[in-house]
Input
Amino acid sequence: MHEDKILPVEEMVAWEEFTGRVEILRELDSWIKNIQRRASPSTALIAPRRMGKTVLLDRLVNTVFFKPEYKVAPFYFKVKREHTTLRKFLLEYATTFFRQYLAYCVQDPFMYLNAEIKLEELLECPSEHKAVTLAKDFIKSFLNRYYDTKYDHPKYDDSRNHWDAFIRTPENLASFSGTRVAVIIDEFQDMKFYIHDVPESDLDGIMEKRRINPDMVGTNLTATYDRQSQSKKAPMLVSGSAVTLIFRTVMGGPLGGRFGFTYLKPISIPDGASLLQTLLPLYAPKRRITPEMALYASTQVTGHPYYLYCIATSVHEGEIFETKDAVDSVISYEIQQGKIYGFWQTHFEDNRKYINADNDEELGKKIIYYFTKYNNQPVDTKEIAQKLNVSKKAVDEKIEKLYLADLVFRSRAKYYTFNDICLMRYIKFVYEQDIEDVEKIDLSQQNQYNNLKGRFLELIVQVTMMKFNNEILPGSFFGKTGEIKVPLFSNVDTKYAKGYKTNLYQIDVCARHYYEYYNFWICECKYTKTKMGIKQVEKLEQAAKALKQEAEDAGRAASKIQMWLVSTGGFTQEVLDYTAQREDIYVSDYEGINGIFRKFGGNYRIPLFVNQDGQDDKG
Output
């Protein structure tokens, strides 16, 4: 699509750089589609900076724009961090909405993209579309009020009243025309700070006050969406990278209880390896990396897309990533003096009032240092207090400050660190040299990498199955003739199955159908060069029986189960002969699973880890 069409949103990354995110993109696409039947409540997408949130929203709009059958216009507004008056902001907001709404109705991506179009010019849009005709009436009404001289006067500025009235325009237009609206606002929390209900002449004074007091707020426009956020015909999808602030904005105050929310996490380790394989030819064509080392690099940065970009674009010397030491070297460089260092150094300076404001500065540094051991885990404040021989209250107070500085988040009444090992390594690098009498913390990911190698095939299968969405694939990928339609799954994970009178079985990968709730695919993975024998087939069959028995014991309908055997070493002839007669058993050898992996974004062959003896090394 990107090669032969103008896209309504200019994406910040090359089309092929967009990697992974299939599940969340599919969920958001469904969210927009379901607006037409009034089944999509307002929601928030929350992610730390550089996680790929805006890139995801760009791709979402570029996808749903070309789906006129949805009859849902994506209104996509990016809040700028520039001080402006409410009057000017109102005109920009209204112009953007009407331009994008009309562009969707007439399927004109250039109109959607072209911010130079003035609001008055939209009245000349040639179309008999019912929604366009109605939108023009709304535009005329807006212009009449906006430019009415009795309102445009220093003694009586109507901007706030006009803004409050305009908030409901997307919903009203959606109601009258039948073409609904998805109100998508990026960096929603910034609508508290940069818009000021003052005359233009007072704006310079406001900016000077902000320079002296960076915490000064503007006119809080987020609170004005209290009614709009409950709309079923024009619900809101808001996002923000100031995690604590956006969370408090949508979950408390006037908007409390009106939004759901989703945390955007790093991409999967296999997708991270694919991203690195894509980035290197684009940004560093002389650099080469093996699939195994791409996987290692992705593990070391936990699939964080920005850190993988930093690796690919690093100015650190070295052109070939053939060893772990070479990968570790470039990551260390980026954390200690490269782009990752610069990113977090700036963040810490911007939030120093929370991070460094301690009565006991040495204790504060030690608490921050110890908190790094809880990467992607609940922070055990009691354990930290015991190690430092201080009160738990002192640790809690410090962690609360880190929460305000967006270094931890709250969930289930606990503080959790983000899954960000590079942040933890940055903290370790900066603080370890300044403090004494602390237990050294090991942030090596080697154990995780070794564990990952042992179950990498399972992870590949799991990640790939989550991308299935009723595609038609060659039957040869599954050891069958003809073609096979792969279903959409709602949940894919490892599972234990046990009926009342059966043994307990571990299923490597168990996937539940999205539409047929009691139907499953279950998968047995063998990640060696040895052929899979009949005993492992029998084991999977027993697991299938246990899964069915488990359902019957719970009083549920008997499950329909499709079994899938995946073996990088292939299968014995006995297995091939047996499964050839069974439509409920698929088999994929090394070529088969690689073929499926490539169909769903994999750009490298699944590595077969080998140790010094030439045998398979699974960690």
